[in-house]
């Protein structure tokens, strides 16, 4: 694993380009598996999760050309050579389970995808995925491979048949899996209480170009009529709203002024409201959004993460860091994931005044009220942060550590840069261009290791060692 050296205290200002969206791009690659036609994607982010997803797809027969400089990716899967995804991808990311929905349309035989089990499984349930696939007519079973790993077997001997799917919770992944499976099922599928995150709308736009018949009603209902007639597609991937907001928060937390080029207003409405509520300013321009603060920021805000159009859970971690730099007390209530505030302990070691609670704080109780993990935090600012040696547990916590280190007055060592490479395109370069004092420590590994361990392998290795990564 590689270590970042960060010396904080600089004001970050300038222009940064937000890249294509991780959580859209990976799903579009999977969706392209439905067809044997070529798809061309533009604005493709150069990140680890795209590399891992392509690697998995290559195993089963996808051919691709990825021009990272031009951000263009061409993919084509003329035939599915195998529908067995090797176990080494277990715990790599949230993608393997989604391959079932896509592969059921093209594979007559058994589909086998890796999963994690044990403690991590509790934090990373797939019950909604499995129930949806079963109601479409697939046989789906999970079999243990070891104490920590499992495989999901699926097949549909009689093909899939359209049905009504009522999701107990509007899970992003279960909605995507249902859409992918229903796209080629016989007849009509209606998904109720579906997630309608912008990344899901992006998937629907791509599938419509591909040939699918899909409509969305205002009440979170998605209707799909199955088809098997597909076309070649060209698609420009939406901007990453998580990355865009991350740079916005950096500007505000360091007293700087950053223009986030390509930030898309319609995907950031809830975030922008929160920015205004703490006394910061933004200006929506033709090709992006600029962020700055005229006066000291004030907290006194209550944030509740939620499904779209709520405050997205992936904005939560950097926003908590930002709130440490605001005067007053604020509450952040995480209602999407039960165990997503683990990083707060490290922030307190860095000097943040933050207290965790198991009970819900706010106007409504969520499904995690009084469960085993703290899912609410009260932050009192403004705090002076001090540099630390920190290990990154997962992608979003990792960014919040980098942000805290950039605010802190002295040096921090942040271990596990690979986590950040999964989702932040050229992070170090972008931060340096804004004035950050950040660099990657020279690699310590031997030449032999360096030759045999590429980014992809090291990501897989650390993801297997980290329960919190598996849980996401
Ligand atoms: N859930 C279930 N059962 C299921 C599936 C989910 O109970 O079968 C629960 C989860 O445990 C969680 C909640 O539902 O408490 C939300 O999970 P969801 O399925 O909506 O999330 P996901 O599809 O696993 C995606 C993103 C996450 C993002 C969430 C919420 C990808 C690859 N991941 O995860 O992004 O936080 O939606 O918007 O698209 C990230 O980018 O760092 C990240 C974690």
Describe this structure in words.
Helix 5 (127-135) runs parallel beside helix 6. The protein has 17 helices and 23 strands. The strands form 6 sheets. A 4-stranded mixed beta sheet has the order 21-22-1-23. A 4-stranded mixed beta sheet has the order 2-14-16-15. It is α+β, with helices and mostly antiparallel strands. Helix 10 (313-323) links the parallel strand 17 (302-304) and strand 18 (328-333). The two termini are 20 Å apart. It binds uridine-diphosphate-2(N-acetylglucosaminyl) butyric acid.
Computed CA radius of gyration, to the nearest angstrom: 22 Å
Overall geometric form: globular
Tally of separate helices:
17
Oligomer: single chain
Q: What structural class do you assign from the helix and strand content? A: alpha+beta
Hetero compounds: uridine-diphosphate-2(N-acetylglucosaminyl) butyric acid
Low-confidence stretches: 118-123, 446-456, 462-472
The beta-strand count equals 23
Read across the widest sheet, the strand sequence of neighbours is: 21-22-1-23
Residues in helices, as a percent range: 25-40%
Span from first to last CA? 20 Å
* Largest sheet, strands/sense/barrel: 4 strands, mixed
Calculate the mean pLDDT score and round it.
Answer: 91
Strand content: 15-25%
Write the topology of this structure.
Blueprint: E1 3-7, E2 14-17, H1 22-31, E3 39-42, H2 48-59, E4 63-67, E5 72-76, H3 96-103, E6 111-116, H4 119-123, H5 127-135, E7 139-144, E8 149-155, E9 164-166, H6 172-182, E10 188-192, H7 198-210, E11 213-217, E12 221-225, E13 233-236, H8 241-253, E14 258-261, H9 269-277, E15 281-285, E16 288-292, E17 302-304, H10 313-323, E18 328-333, H11 344-349, E19 353-357, E20 376-381, E21 389-391, H12 395-407, E22 411-415, H13 417-421, H14 427-433, E23 437-440, H15 447-452, H16 455-465, H17 467-470
The chain binds uridine-diphosphate-2(N-acetylglucosaminyl) butyric acid.
């Amino acid at each position: 694993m590689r270590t970042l050296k960060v010396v904080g205290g600089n004001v970050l200002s300038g222009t940064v380009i937000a890249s294509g969206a991780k959580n859209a791009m990976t799903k579009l690659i999977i969706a392209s598996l439905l067809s044997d036609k070529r798809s061309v994607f533009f604005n493709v982010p150069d990140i680890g999760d795209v590399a891992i997803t392509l690697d998995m797809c290559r195993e089963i027969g996808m051919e691709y050309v990825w021009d990272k400089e031009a951000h263009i990716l061409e993919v084509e899967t003329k035939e599915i050579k195998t529908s067995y995804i090797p176990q080494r991808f277990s715990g790599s990311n949230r993608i393997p389970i989604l391959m079932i929905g896509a592969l059921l349309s093209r594979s007559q035989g058994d589909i086998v995808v890796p999963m994690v089990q044990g403690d991590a499984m509790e934090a990373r349930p797939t019950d909604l995925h499995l129930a949806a696939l079963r109601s479409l007519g697939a046989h789906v079973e999970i079999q243990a491979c070891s104490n920590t790993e499992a495989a999901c077997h699926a097949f549909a001997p009689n093909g899939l048949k359209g049905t009504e799917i009522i999701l107990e919770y509007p899970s992003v992944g279960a909605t995507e899996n249902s859409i992918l499976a229903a796209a080629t099922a016989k007849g009509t599928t209606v998904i109720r209480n579906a997630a309608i995150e912008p990344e899901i709308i992006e998937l629907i736009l791509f599938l419509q170009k591909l040939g699918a018949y899909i409509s969305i009603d205002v009440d979170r209902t998605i209707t799909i009529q199955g088809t098997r007639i597909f076309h070649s597609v060209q698609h420009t991937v939406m901007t990453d709203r998580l990355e865009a907001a991350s740079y916005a928060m950096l500007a505000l937390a360091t007293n700087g002024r950053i223009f986030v080029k390509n930030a898309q207003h319609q995907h950031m409405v809830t975030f922008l409201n929160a920015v205004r509520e703490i006394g910061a300013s933004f200006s929506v321009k033709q090709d992006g959004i600029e962020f700055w603060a005229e006066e000291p920021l004030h907290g006194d805000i209550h944030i509740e993460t939620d499904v779209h159009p709520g405050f997205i859970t992936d904005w939560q971690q950097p926003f908590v860091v930002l709130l440490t730099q605001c005067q007053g007390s604020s509450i952040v209530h995480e209602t999407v994931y039960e165990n997503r505030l683990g990083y707060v302990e490290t922030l307190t070691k860095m000097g943040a005044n933050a207290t965790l609670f198991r009970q819900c704080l706010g106007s409504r109780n969520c499904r995690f009220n009084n469960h085993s993990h703290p899912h609410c935090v009260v932050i009192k600012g403004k705090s002076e942060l001090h540099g630390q040696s920190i290990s990154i547990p997962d992608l979003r916590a990792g960014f919040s550590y980098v942000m805290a280190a950039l605010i802190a007055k002295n040096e921090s060592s942040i271990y596990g840069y690979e986590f950040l490479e999964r989702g932040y395109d050229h992070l170090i370069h972008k931060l340096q261009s804004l004035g950050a004092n950040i660099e990657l420590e020279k690699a310590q590994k031997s030449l032999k290791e360096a030759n045999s361990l590429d980014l992809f392998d090291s990501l897989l290795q650390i993801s297997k060692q980290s329960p919190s990564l598996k849980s996401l």
